[in-house]
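Revision sheet: structure tokens.
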Amino acid sequence: MKLYIDKEELRERIRLNFDHLKNDPYYSIADYSWYGDKEGRALLAFVSHYKISGEKIPCMELMLEQLPDKLNEEGYFGPLYRSDIHEEQLSGQSWLLRGLCEHYQTFGDATSLSVIRRITQNLYLPLQGKMATYPTIRSAKQAGGVSGELAESIDGWILSTDIGCAFMSIDGLSHAYEVTRDAKTKGLLDEMMTVYLSIDKFAMKAQTHCTLTAARGMLRMYRNTSESKYLHGAEEIFALYVSGGMTKTYQNLNWWNRADSWTEPCAIVDSLMVAAELYQFTQREEYRRLAARIYHNGFSTSQRDNGGAGTDTLICDGSGQQELYPLLYEAYFCCSMRLAEGLWYIVKHQELLWAEQSGTVEKAADHTYRDHDILYCLPDAALLPFVAEGKQVDGMTLYPIVKAYKVPRDILMASRQKILFD
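Predicted:
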């Protein structure tokens, strides 16, 4: 039996996120240590909502009006690093490219196109021939927060605790290539992809979000060039993610080989998009099924009642966790904005995202209970007013994972849902 996306639920999720981005003054241009990151994600979110509803969030155009005065003399955010490569600057500017490319493709404005060209020419193209110098051996310290922070400088690279985030740029540059068709940009993209695919991401403890984002860039290049190397690269990354970067709740570990971390909705959005894109290119049913499981399970707890998105515990081997519960109520500086693109993508592809269920809940070999694609949990009593229909099994009443956006903040932050059963 097919369980299709609840259209009323999807509309409510979209409304909550739209109102949050529209009314919170944070989502406007301002100083930010991840140069261009917030501005790019915000612009991408604003355009995503416009594509859903046709309604503009007012600060979208204000942001574009202010943008030229905020850029440095070479046309991008942050200082001019002449002798070093600043990993977070590359990552942040990639999101700026994404937002500008979406805005240009939607509205056709000259400002966006001009900034796209200057960022690509002045920040990124000078990297050609240097990507293979990216340091893969880092400090043994298990460091880093949800936002990421500067970690250490090695061999001319100013590195981030969001390990591998320089290669997030594959996404932004692939979008710039789609807009400009610049051959030099494609050459740099090929270099970045070759280097990143050669790196042992598990050993380096790379961030899953930046890696899945790179895979989305590879898929965009495949869509624009039909060159199979891009599809194969994305498939390689996604196979690695499924085997060691995804939790039993179809969410993500923030880093590979770091079961002491947390989920990140940015990566959950990425994983759904990569899975669905791979299905559309290959027609392999396992990709469609994974995309559906990510939406129906992984998305359940990611969005909060204020419309933003936050982090949860890891239900995976090595975490020691059996219960799913929130850690950070809202990652307003990244995930709340990326959620908008995810919601747009879900609207566009909702007919693919049906889940299989039979009406019978059984215990699986991985110690979860499920009805085919739908995970079931044992929630705290405080969550019972917000549950869907329950099922009696093994002397318990179990329910599909509670959707966090329905739950008031104070109840959500104090409640747990048991996922694993001995």
